[in-house]
Amino acid sequence: QLGSIEFLDKERTFLLSTTHGAEMSSLGAFIETIKFMKKKSVIKHIWTYGYNLQKLFKTLIKTYGLEENFIIEGPACSPVYYLLNNEGKVSLELRTLFSQEMIKNKILMPFIALCYHHGEKELKLTENALKKVFPILKNALNHNIKDYLDGDVIKPVFRKYN
Helix/strand/coil (H, E, C) string of 85-147? Predict the structure, then answer.
């Protein structure tokens, strides 16, 4: 009733209804996020962590002789990896084995998604896991990879048939 036009000669309250009026809270959250990112140098941290992670992977890939089978590349802020069989073809079996063994070592890494909270502790945990997993990958490449799997092979998300 405060905004109604039904009462003549009464002061009315202006009511506003907008399509995007509710977006103010998300805009406020966005502004605070940007302030936090600037204050904590989040972008620099993610680039540095990504660089260190790629460096770690590349060092261990070389150490375990997996240069032809485990590829990590892309910008340091968003690295990607893929695994190749001994014929140089993308291997979902090997990728499945990598994910399986990393999970056994308490690292969930179906892909790499960097975060501000990743630090030295997480890098060390990843290093320890890779030192256990890479020898398993090397052995599997010299034998039948499927013999090392505990379950089904990962399937691509976009595929014609299940």
Answer: CCCCCECHHHHHHHHHHHHHCCCCCCCCCCCCCCCHHHHHHHHHHHHHHHHHHHHHHCCCHHH
Q: Using alpha carbons only, give the angle 45, 50, 94 rounded to the nearest 5 degrees.
A: 155
pLDDT digit string (tens) for 73-117?
999 999 999 999 999 999 999 999 999 999 999 999 999 999 999
User: Which helix (H) or strand (E) covers residue 48, if one does?
Assistant: helix 42-63
Q: Which residue do the tokens 């990843």 mark?
A: 126
pTM exceeds cut of 0.90: no
Instruction: Tell me the Ramachandran region of residue 74: left when phi exceeds 0, alpha when psi lies from -120 to 50, beta otherwise.
Output: left
Run of H or E residues at 65: none
Q: What is the pLDDT of residues 123-135, one digit of tens each?
A: 999 999 999 999 9
